[in-house]
Amino acid sequence: MSHERARALKQEATRLESISLTAAQLCDIELLLTGAYAPVTRLMTRQDLGPEPAASQIGRVARPQLQVFLEVNAASASKLSLGQRVVLRDDEGAMLAVLTIEDIWDPRMAAKDALPQATEATPQALPTPETEARCLRVGGSIEGIGTPGRHDYPELRVTPSWLAEEPRRRRLQRMILVDSAAELTQTAHQAVAAIAAEIDALVVLQIADDGLQPTDLRLHRAVRECREALRQYPAGRAQLALLPLVSKGNDVHELLRRAAVYGNYGATHCILDPRDYGLGSGAEGSAALSKLSAEGLLKTSMTLISSLDLTGPAGGLTADRGAGRPHASHSRGARRSGRVPGRRGATCFFTGLSGAGKSTVARALAARLGQLDRTVSLLDGDIIRKHLSSELTFSKEHRDLNIRRIGYVASEVTRHAGIAICAPIAPYRITRATVRGMIESLGEFLEIHVSTPIQICEKRDPKGLYAKAHAGLIKDFTGVSDPYEEPEHPEIAIDTSQVEVEDAVARIVAELRARGCLHGSDDWPQTAAG
Predict the structure, then answer these.
(1) 355: annotated binding-site residue?
(2) Has 358 been labeled as part of a binding site?
(3) Cα angle 270, 187, 199; round to 5
(4) InterPro entries from the xrefs (predicted)?
(5) Tell me, what's the pLDDT at 55?
């Protein structure tokens, strides 16, 4: 998309209804926009999906079809109509895409009872006592504005087009993609390396993401385990990846969805655990996986390999079932979590104008601290407004109350030796001083002024708020019609128009370490390849 078209969409989006996406929906939109769901390029309608299978066919595996649509609750759907354009946003409010609605339907209703085909002039009156709790499906064409911001391991967040070319760049012929690679044993990785050498393949270790947040220590431990596993592969023959896949079930249809996505990333072979997809364990599971390939149920020519058949380089593939990874209490991505005792708690309190970069730096900091195995609670201003302070207005009194609520939660995190990262606008000095007073007796308090000039913030305007404020659509907007009182003596000041996010994070991490909030070294490797 051209820069001019993206700018036009952003301007249009300021006038449109918004839909805030869940973590799983963000992944779907990213997969659509990057081509990982090809040939699907839109949120599908009933016509795209085709007829529902007859009762006699339910449970049978038909030729796979990616099913990508948007689910919204009935209350939200009542504001939508066919032909309407809506903007899709992430949980920070950033604009990702504009959707033109072509279909709205209730999957629990038979075709003959389908919802009326509304128009812009006659929107659907959907909510009733019976349907209020239902999730309805929405389909239509989308135009991308941007992809979700990923602050955890950006070097592992590769696109399909980039990864598909990686074997050629390394002068290899094929690609083996290992699903949930962090759960393989060392012996299994050695077996994968032997297979790759035999077929001249690049090995891509897909880390089990499943929507884990940057503050979840399980994600960072999985990354570390996969980086450790790279030692089992010859240099230049293995690559880590963190693809935006969230599990949608544990059945064959989920397996086929993943296989289609992996094929678009360039995989010619895929190693999976049949137990993850309800195919059974031992020889039964491996045979069921082989049968899927043999019956031509995959749209690609990909070869599926059971991780249960992996034993080691000497034996390659053997009949020793269950050697792939431990499975005593099986749950995709299940890992230990906890905190390392003996560290001092802290609150990193970001303040600055809308669009200054507070959330971007805060999320990058959360991801970095997670990599350092530190327990973190991220209290983003927009998310707190949505879930903790949804009843509040933007009056001065309610703004103060919202910040005090954030301060209380942060004080409890700090009291229990965690690190709270707060990223509200917090425009008033007296309120920020109140929060400092709540926390300083319990642990460290870092006021971080994101001092990006308002001219830069207005130019960025990721949520379209400045445009609305100047148009008179938002009253008491900080920096436009309401003052922002700059901190007089912040612990750290960052102008994101002059300082890179990584450098800003490094400054904060150094300060936390100097204050005794972090122990150990900071030298985890940051490359994706072995």
Answers:
(1) yes
(2) yes
(3) 40
(4) APS, APS_kinase_dom, ATP-Sase_PUA-like_dom, P-loop_NTPase, PUA-like_sf, Rossmann-like_a/b/a_fold, Sulf_AdTrans/APS_kinase
(5) 40
